[in-house]
């Protein structure tokens, strides 16, 4: 599933005329992944070559770029001779926490996808 943009989560902000049929809020059409970080996905299923279930770096070693290097190595060697590009949606994570979402956005530039276990 592709991550929903902030505009999709917030809605257009346009006023609905009183005589119009009620429209569900934008998040009703999205899948909630993590409500604490406002992470929602569009529910369309998308094929993705590589899925990453967990990334763990001990707290004593966090904020040193270790997770980014691990992800780079995994994407470069997952399929021999065919490096994957997370920015093109070729890598997906399971439902991330708030810190996992930040890692995904930093590493994949918004192109990383989410998958359900």
Report on this model:
Helices cover 24% and strands 13% of the residues. The chain is of the alpha/beta class. It has 2 domains: 6-41, no CATH class; 50-114, no CATH class. It has a 3-stranded parallel beta sheet, with no helix packed on it. It has a two-stranded antiparallel ribbon with strand order 1-2. The two termini are 12 Å apart.
Query: How many structural domains are formed by the residues?
Result: 2
Distance between the termini: 12 Å
Q: Total number of β-strand segments?
A: 5
Uncertain ranges? none
Write out the strand line-up for the largest beta sheet, numbering strands in chain order: 3-4-5
Q: Return the string of H and E elements.
A: HEEEHEHE
Task: Report mean pLDDT, rounded to a whole number.
Answer: 82
- Strand fraction equals 5-15%
Largest sheet: 3 strands, parallel
Output the number of helix runs.
3
The value of Rg in angstroms is 17 Å
Overall outline: globular
State the helical fraction: 10-25%
Helix/sheet category: alpha/beta
Fold blueprint:
Elements: H1 6-10, E1 31-34, E2 39-41, E3 50-52, H2 66-77, E4 91-93, H3 98-108, E5 113-114
Parallel strand pairs: 3-4, 4-5
Antiparallel strand pairs: 1-2
Q: What's the short story on this structure?
A:
The protein contains three helices and five strands. It has about 120 residues and is α/β, with parallel strands linked by helices.
């Amino acid at each position: 599933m592709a991550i929903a943009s902030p505009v999709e989560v917030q809605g257009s902000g346009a006023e609905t005329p009183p005589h119009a049929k009620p429209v569900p809020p934008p998040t009703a059409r999205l899948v909630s992944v993590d409500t604490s970080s406002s992470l929602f996905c569009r529910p369309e299923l998308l094929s993705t070559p590589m899925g990453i279930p967990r990334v763990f770096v001990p707290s004593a070693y966090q904020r040193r770029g270790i997770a980014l290097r691990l992800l780079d190595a995994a994407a470069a060697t997952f399929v021999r001779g065919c490096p994957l590009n997370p920015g093109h949606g070729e890598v997906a994570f399971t439902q991330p926490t708030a810190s996992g979402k930040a890692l995904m956005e930093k590493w994949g530039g918004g192109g990383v996808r989410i998958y359900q276990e």
